[in-house]
Design goal:
193 residues; 10 strands; 1 helix; ten-stranded antiparallel β-sheet; mainly beta; globular
Amino acid sequence: MKKQQIFRLALILIFTNCVAVKTSEPIAKDYQIGEKWTWKWERKVKGKVRAEGEDIQEVVSYNGTLGLWNGVDTLQIPTGANKNQNSAPFRNWPLQVGKKWKYESEWKNNEGTTGKTSQDVEITSFEELNVEAGTFAAYKIEYKGIVTNSRGFKGEMTDIWWYSPELKTYIKHINDDGHGLYTNELTSYSKAE
């Protein structure tokens, strides 16, 4: 087992140092009905867990193509590459180590609070990360900036996402808003049956 891990790590190091790795946005043809991801999440404030739960995504048939169902809503998976990407996107495809961009979002939460997030983003590495679901090669993407809301809050916010091309999604997310720490980690992945 240890030899296999060393060999895998050596391949990743060789791969990331010798080749400019680029990952395109996954589209419908990259998924299969029945694929399922499960994450556990928790929010800690001053070291105490204030909230916790579980999120899922499952590939389902949707509007004549495929969609990602989260237990409540279904989001259609694009059938082709997005040629008109937003000028300040959450993910700036294709992904590649060293890539930088600006992310901006206006949002509204369940309680009616509105807000804006503005962050500078950089893909800092392509590394192997161990999560409860297993060990996967992933891009480490760092988001650093400001969040404001209609309740008068303004503060710095840092997000770190690890995106796995193999699983077509993130495997870990850490959010630090200065008041608490939110962690979300992949606990299981199952292929289509």
